[in-house]
Amino acid sequence: MNSHHWVNEAIGKIEADFQRSADTHLVRLDLPGLNGIDLYLKDESTHPTGSLKHRLARSLFLYAICNGWVNQNTTIIESSSGSTAVSEAYFARLLGLPFIAVMPRSTSIHKIRQIEFYGGQCHLVSCSSEIYAESQRLAKELNGHYMDQFTYAERATDWRGNNNIADSIFRQMRAEPHPVPSWIVMSPGTGGTSATLGRYIRYQRLDTQLCVVDPEHSVFMDYYLSGDISLTIDRSSRIEGIGRPRVEPSFIPGVIDDMRRVPDAAAIATIHWLETILGRKAGPSTGTNLYGALQIASEMRACSEEGSVVTLLCDSGERYLDTCYNPDWIAAQVGDIQPWLTKISQLVSGVGL
Known about the structure:
By secondary structure, this protein is α/β, with parallel strands linked by helices. The chain has 2 domains: 16-50 and 161-347, Rossmann fold; 54-154, 3-Layer(aba) Sandwich (Rossmann fold), CATH 3.40.50.1100. It has 13 helices and 10 strands. Strands 1-2-10-7-8-9 form a 6-stranded mixed sheet, sandwiched between helices. It has a 4-stranded parallel sheet with strand order 5-4-3-6, sandwiched between helices. α1 (3-20) packs antiparallel against α2 and α3 runs parallel beside α4. It is globular. The N and C termini lie far apart (62 Å).
């Protein structure tokens, strides 16, 4: 098979997969204590691979193929904390390509099993800061291609065009009481999604503001405040999928209107509270997003403002049964979440946060 024929077939398979996948749901939360402020979750857990990263993996494969970096004999290597690797393993299997995920040993067992389910291999390292060099080494050794989501996430997605997550949110909001959100809240993993949202808001000349929420043990917020791109830390984020030990190339601070830190215990408490509202579990990055959205909604209410706030449900909590839904892990890693549950209950009952 010649290279052009393979490229045509590969892109056709990816586009056909996209056409088979319906758009994700926009879920409105019923919170009487926030009267006049509507809060929504864009539920990305309904993608075929169960997370927001399905969009990114699709874009990265198309970008790499169209740039001539991937052909029918290419081994795909990616550095990931789990969800991107799950989605990339899915697309690699779709195209018949070998896939290796380079991940920290702390990655949840459920994610590792999902990667293996799609035919991928998991190459584990001790610390998240080691994933970059090890991915580059493997790509060179195997004559493969390192996808490098942390560099290419913001480049691979067409933030002006149709079918990106920003366009989807604003289309789905058209029939709502406050169709143009006052705020969209997002946490950074690569920074690619917040870049897409912020650029789209500006390009469409919308009044929506973008708030980015960072977990503990991440340098993104410190970089946002200081402008020091050389910042690093020697700890890994406890919130899988978001927070980084270095400033990633895809993180674009200029599109962000506000940034704040969400304590990890608050994020974990939020997903346990959310389960009582939705009747199902969400992952910890969703807890970070939603806690930030609740803070903003509370501040809006205190100022007698009305409007809508949109954030993302990034993936299902079923991937985190051994961590974020395990009382022993919670006690050892983040401590007592009851004070945060109390604060959330006060907010949604109208007392305030």
